Amino acid sequence: MKKIAIYGAGGFGREVACLLNKINEVKLTWELIGFFDDGLAIGTEVSHFGNVLGGINELNEWSSKLSIAITIGNPKIVQSIVSKVFNQNVDFPNIIAPTVYFSDPETFNIGRGNIIQKHCSFSCDVTIGDFNVMDGADVFGHDDVVGSYNTFMPAMRISGEVNIGDCNFFGVGSIILQKIKIGNNVRLGAGSVLMRKPKDGILYMGNPAKKMNL
Question: What's the pLDDT at 143?
């Protein structure tokens, strides 16, 4: 079994600890040794899953091989954490639930550091970058291209031939229609339906999704 720690000791961190257990039920893969978190004291208990081992400084001083799953929903914070990790002993594996469905594994391409929770579905010819979070029951259509550092909340629906950039946040149950191109730092509110190309750095809400000045 490979040693792994979770970066982020909140609710999502505990959910990923549960996910690691589910993966181990199918095939013994991961030994969870604890958590890293910059906001909690070393030794803080995280439910029954383990203790906080430190923050970014302790991770960079870790002296043996260690996999890390970053469990933070804010894309910019994830990006910041990754940029601060320089320890060559650390790697960022993809953590993929056993119940994830791939229409065509041969044409599915993925980078590193992604977390894909239960019951997500990927059609053919889908490409995923690095450090994305798919938080459960998300559906990706054919020929979708996803960049890096995006967060997809549960039950999202993305039609075919959608192209998504970096550091975007998509709310629970939101929908993106076919062939839409999304740039960077876009936020789509829960239950919203995106029908046209959005502008970077803007929050969109509603059906159809409209620009919000919040």
Answer: 99
Asked whether residue 122 carries a pLDDT value surpassing 90, the answer given is yes
Nearest CA among 116, 155, 125 for reference residue 139: 155
d(CA 21, CA 184): 33
Sketch the domain layout of the chain as residue ranges.
2-93, 96-202
Backbone angles phi, psi at 159, to 5 degrees: -70, 175
50: which strand partners?
A: 46
**Kind and range of the H or E element at 3?**
strand 2-7
Q: Quote the pLDDT of residue 213.
A: 83
Beta bridge pairs of residue 96: 116
pLDDT of 141 higher than 80: yes
Domain 96-202 belongs to what topology? UDP N-Acetylglucosamine Acyltransferase; domain 1 (2.160.10)
Supply angle C-alpha 36, 96, 59, rounded to 5.
20
Question: Would you state the structure tokens that stand for residue 6, as one six-digit string?
Answer: 């979770």
Q: Which helix (H) or strand (E) holds 80?
A: helix 75-84
The fold of the 2-93 domain, in CATH, is Rossmann fold (3.40.50)
If you average pLDDT over residues 27-44, what whole number do you get?
98
Asked if residue 208 has a cis previous peptide bond (ω within 30° of 0), the answer is yes
User: Is residue 108 left, alpha or beta, with left meaning phi > 0 and alpha meaning psi from -120 to 50?
Assistant: beta
pLDDT at residue 214 tops 80: no
Task: For residue 185, give Cα distances in angstroms to 23, 68, 97, 168, 175.
Answer: 32, 24, 27, 5, 17
